[in-house]
Design brief:
481 residues
Length: 481
C-alpha cells in the first residue's frame, strides 16, 4: 500500500478555470449598507441639495454618492478601487444599476471644484494661513449630513432610546498628503488639517471644516462649532461642548456662554475646554496650597491625577467689566517620589476653563472622555475609511471626499449601534466589515422575484435581518429581464 501524504502537504482539489455564471458576490453585505442608506433617504437628500449635472442621462447624484459610500465602507481608498466591483452582477441587481467606473467617479468629484474660490487664497507672503471657503456643492453635502443625522435620531426614538443630550466634541486632525498643492503643517510634513465636530452620545460626525495644512486649529474654530449645534435636532434638551486648548479662543467661548444660547432649542451650552497655560495662569496653579489638591485617581505607573480650584480671572482686553468670570479647574499630574517626567520635573500642571459647577473630579473625568469620541472618529475616518487619502489637487474636491468619508462613518455607526448586539455595538470598522459587509451572497429568482441568499452563519444572517427590520424600505418584487 502506498504511503499517504500528510493532509497539509497536499491540496485536495483542482482549480476549475470556468467562471461561475451565477449572480454571486463576495461583497453582498454592501447591499445591507445600501438598504440603510436608502432608508435614511440619502439619495433624496442628495437630489435636493446637489445639482451638479447638466444633462439628464447617466448616473444621478444620488447614485454617485451611494457608490462612493459603498466603496469606502468596503475598504476602498480611492476612486480607482471601484474596479473591485466590476462585473459583479449580484451587486448590480441588488442596487438596480451598474456601479460607475473610476473615471466617472472622478468626473463627479471634480464638480465640487470651484476655481473662483481657490483664486481667493492670498499669496503666502501676504498671509501665512487662510481658511478657504467651501464651494456651494460642498455646502450642499453638509445639508445632506444634517438631514441624515436628524433621520438617525428618529430611529433612536423609534427604538425607545431617544437622544436628549448632545455633547459636541471638536478637534482638528492632520491628513498627510504629498499633493503639489498641499501646504506644510506644524508637525513638519505637508497635507490638510480639517476640523471635525462629533455628537458624542450618538457617535455621529455632525460638522466639519476642511482646511489647508498650515491653518492652525485655533484659527476661527467658531465656524465649525456653530455649524455643529445648528445640525442638532430640536428634540435635544441639553447641550454641552468639549474641546482642547485650540478651542480656548475668545470668539468661540464668547459665543458658547452668550445669553442668547439660553433662548435656543436645547438651552444653555455647558462647556469644558482645556485652557492655554499662560504665564499668569501657570503662576496661579503653582501657587495652590498642597492641602487644596484632591486626588482623583492613581494611574497604573503610580502617577497621581489631582484637581483643585484656581482663583484666576484673566485680564484680557476683550473681557467686559460686568461679565461673569469663568471657572478654572486645575489639574496636577504628580509622579511618585524619585520618579520624574521626561523634562526632569515631578509634576505637570494643566487647567480647564468651564461654565459648569460640577465637582472638579467629575468635570475633569467628563472632559477627558473627549479622547474616546472625536479622536476615535479621526482614526476610523482616516485609517479604516478613505478620509486619509486625498484624491485630487483641488481643495474642494478633497473637502467633498473627506465629508463623504464622514457620511460613510455615520452610516456605519447608525447600523452598528441600532442593529448589533450589546457586545458588538462598539466594534471598530475592521470588525464591522467581518460581521456585516464581507458576506458572500447569491441573487436568485424565485416565483419571478429576486431574492438574496447569503453564504454565512445564522448569526450573520440574523444581523442582516435586524438591519432590514430597523431600516425600513419598500421592497418591490422585481422580475428578471
Amino acid at each position: 500500500m502506498p504511503a499517504r501524504l500528510p493532509i497539509q502537504s497536499k491540496s485536495p482539489f483542482h482549480i476549475d478555470a470556468r467562471p461561475l455564471d451565477e449572480m454571486a458576490s463576495p461583497h453582498a453585505g454592501l447591499l445591507v449598507a445600501s438598504r440603510a442608506a436608502r432608508s435614511l433617504k440619502i439619495p433624496e437628500l442628495v437630489s435636493a441639495n446637489l445639482q451638479l449635472k447638466s444633462r439628464q442621462r447617466g448616473f444621478t447624484e444620488g447614485q454617485f454618492v451611494e457608490s462612493i459610500l459603498l466603496l469606502q465602507i468596503a475598504g476602498g481608498d480611492c476612486p480607482d478601487d471601484v474596479s473591485i466591483f466590476s462585473n459583479d452582477t449580484c451587486l448590480e441587481r441588488g442596487l438596480g444599476y451598474t456601479l460607475p467606473k473610476a473615471t466617472a467617479l472622478r468626473e463627479f468629484l471634480n464638480r465640487f471644484h470651484d476655481e473662483s474660490i481657490e483664486s481667493q487664497r492670498p499669496a503666502r507672503e501676504t498671509q501665512k494661513s487662510f481658511i478657504l471657503p467651501s464651494s456651494s456643492a460642498v455646502r450642499g453635502l453638509q445639508n445632506v449630513q444634517a438631514g441624515m443625522v436628524r433621520r438617525v435620531v428618529k430611529l433612536y426614538e423609534q427604538a425607545g432610546e431617544p437622544l436628549q443630550i448632545a455633547t459636541i466634541d471638536m478637534d482638528a486632525t492632520i491628513i498627510e498628503s504629498h499633493k503639489e498643492n498641499a501646504l506644510p503643517h506644524y508637525e513638519g510634513g505637508r497635507g490638510y488639517q480639517p476640523m471635525v465636530a462629533v455628537w458624542a452620545e450618538a457617535d455621529l460626525a455632525v460638522a466639519d471644516e476642511f482646511r489647508d495644512g498650515n491653518v492652525p486649529a485655533k484659527q476661527e474654530p467658531l465656524t465649525c462649532a456653530r455649524q455643529a449645534f445648528a445640525t442638532l435636532p430640536n428634540t435635544v434638551g441639553q447641550r454641552f461642548f468639549r474641546g482642547d486648548s485650540a478651542c480656548h479662543e475668545n470668539d468661540l467661548i464668547g459665543w458658547l456662554k452668550h445669553p442668547d444660547r439660553q433662548k435656543e432649542p436645547g438651552g444653555k451650552i455647558g462647556f469644558a475646554i482645556s485652557a492655554v497655560m499662560s504665564a499668569a495662569l501657570q503662576k496661579e496653579v503653582q501657587a495652590i496650597e498642597e492641602k487644596e489638591w484632591q486626588t482623583i485617581k492613581t494611574e497604573a505607573d503610580g502617577t497621581l491625577r489631582q484637581w483643585a480650584e484656581v482663583a484666576f480671572v484673566p485680564g484680557e482686553a476683550h473681557e467686559k467689566k460686568d461679565s461673569h468670570p469663568l471657572r478654572y479647574v486645575g489639574l496636577r499630574l504628580l509622579k511618585s517620589q524619585g520618579v520624574l517626567f521626561a523634562d526632569g520635573s515631578d509634576r505637570h500642571h494643566h487647567a480647564v476653563v468651564t461654565n459648569l459647577e460640577w465637582a472638579g473630579d467629575r468635570l475633569l473625568q467628563w472632559h477627558r472622555e473627549k479622547a474616546g469620541t472625536v479622536e476615535h472618529v479621526h482614526d476610523e475616518v482616516k485609517n479604516a475609511l478613505a478620509g486619509g487619502h486625498m484624491p485630487s489637487q483641488h481643495f474642494n474636491v478633497n473637502a467633498a471626499w473627506f465629508k463623504l468619508s464622514l457620511l460613510a462613518y455615520n452610516l456605519v455607526s447608525a447600523m452598528r449601534r441600532l442593529c448589533l448586539g450589546a457586545e458588538e455595538r462598539t466594534v471598530r470598522l475592521k470588525k464591522f466589515r467581518l460581521l456585516v459587509i464581507n458576506l458572500a451572497g447569491r441573487m436568485s429568482r424565485f416565483q419571478c422575484t429576486m431574492r438574496l441568499r447569503f453564504c454565512a452563519p445564522k448569526q450573520a444572517i440574523a444581523r442582516v435581518l435586524k438591519v432590514w427590520e430597523v431600516f425600513e424600505l419598500p421592497t418591490q418584487a422585481t422580475a428578471f429581464q
